[in-house]
Amino acid sequence: MVLFSGAVGGSGSKEDRHLLLNGRRQLLLVLLSFLQPRRYPGRLLLAAGLAFAVYLWLTQEGQSAPEAVLKSATPAPVFSDFDRAAGDLGRLDQPPPAAATCRHPPFVLRPDRLRAAARFRALHDAEQREDDEEGDVDQENEEELEEDEEAPPRDPSYRARVGPTPQGHPEANYTVIYNFASPLPPGQPENEEGESGELFALVTHVAPERLLSDLPPLLERWPRPHPVSVAVYAPGEDFCLASALVSWLWHCSDRDGRLSLAARVSFHVLFRGSDAADVALKNAATESGGVGLPEVDCEVQPEASFASFRAEKGLPYPANAARNAAAAATSASGARFFLSLDADFLPSPGLADNFLALAKDPEFQEEFFGAGAEGDESRKAKKLKKKRRTVFAVPAFDLRGSGSDPVPSSKAELVSLYSRGKASYLDKNKPSCGQCQQFPGLGGWLKASAATEEPDKAAAEKASPDSSVGVFKVSRRHPPFHRWEPFFVGTLAEPPYDERLLSEDGGGGRSDRSALLHELCLSGYRVAVLDTAFLIRRKVNKSGVKVRKDDGSASAASGNNNKVFKKLRRELVLKYHEKTKCMPNF
Fold it and tell me: How would DSSP label each residue in 546-566?
């Protein structure tokens, strides 16, 4: 140790410094001796030692190696900020500062009184979140339900938990209030025949200013009792708007029960990690000092549009973080499959029930899930399952024109609109990627009947194609379809979306979903195109281009994504190695 302690010109006697210099010279001579031509084993040993030292340095630095980024842990400061603000500030006797109170819309009756008084509970580890997703309730709520089992749900926020987004990437620090409003009591709802059946979840995300316009039409197209998981991105002052609008939707928009909103829809509020203390302060400043929904007047109709803090500040929209948060919450509902959509899409009627019926078919299970290997943990069975991993693409289309045509309810109606130029495949005229939604076999899909697979339109209509769903074509995301970015039916077994990527709203170029589709290709997933199921996107102009005002966030998102895509290329090569047929679209 004396060889490396102290500096040559430091303190100590002249003899000590002389001894230190001689020791270092001896060490240098020993190292150089390994480089002599006759000492090949020594040279190899030295090279191996240097390589191992470099490897340790790269993996410990975290930010210096892509693999270290992939293994990074969830940032801890989110919890400490929220716990301190939600706990200590909730017990203050003095009036809260003006900045701590929400400026609610006019339909909120008493902003200082929350309908629900559940305290925030942070999710410090994965086990606690898993217990919550299984539907555990605290002792107090269980006693209330036992006292009055027939009483209607009173506390939609009783299951509220605070935690990070599922990926928890250190470069994408977001906090989520899971189950900000969710069905009470939790559990698997019954179907119309009173039988408890398999469920198919719809996963979506939305900005608060678009909640009232986008969510009700989507719920009308998603059949009961299948659950819906909604992530609402609400940074800064948008949290106040989100809490008010979620409360109005929950208590006022579905008083006739047509949407079954309170029985199957869960809301999860997402915001930046830096906003955590401010959000906790706004809740702790209320009389109840907890998370919950404000009292609203159902006789007051909300405005048609709202000012958005995010749009005013030009903040990018983290669609991937919202998708992951909403998808992770579906495990509490017991749903096996889920479909992740943007809120301005409408699925074809019957998609959920028809797909579940298809998934029960033994031949389908054997082909796409390796059902014969279920419960078999042998190496051969695991290899079979891995080989047959599949996601199920739902073809997506844009409606073009003035919007006077009704949204098609069947494939026959969609084909009719397509043949008259009033519909096109999604993003056909998008300047940056006009082929990203042109799926394999598009022409044959438009002609084929689900029942007969014949290119006869009359036969297709007679066969009632919407009465069932099948697989039209099985493909992979290989050239010339390496740009394909389908919306798909999947499970929680698939990798999550990369939360560092931000939504460009069609204004900058590459999709925030492209990285996940490339990763699925690298990990060997097939893509099966469903035949009669489809998606329709609203809000497009006569040219078929998505209509969205540019608030300045698109350019910010594009600049961020360009940097992230460079890192992603290195990370995915390191994780999966290079596969020549899987070409990245970024």
Answer: BP----SHHHHHHHHHHHHHH
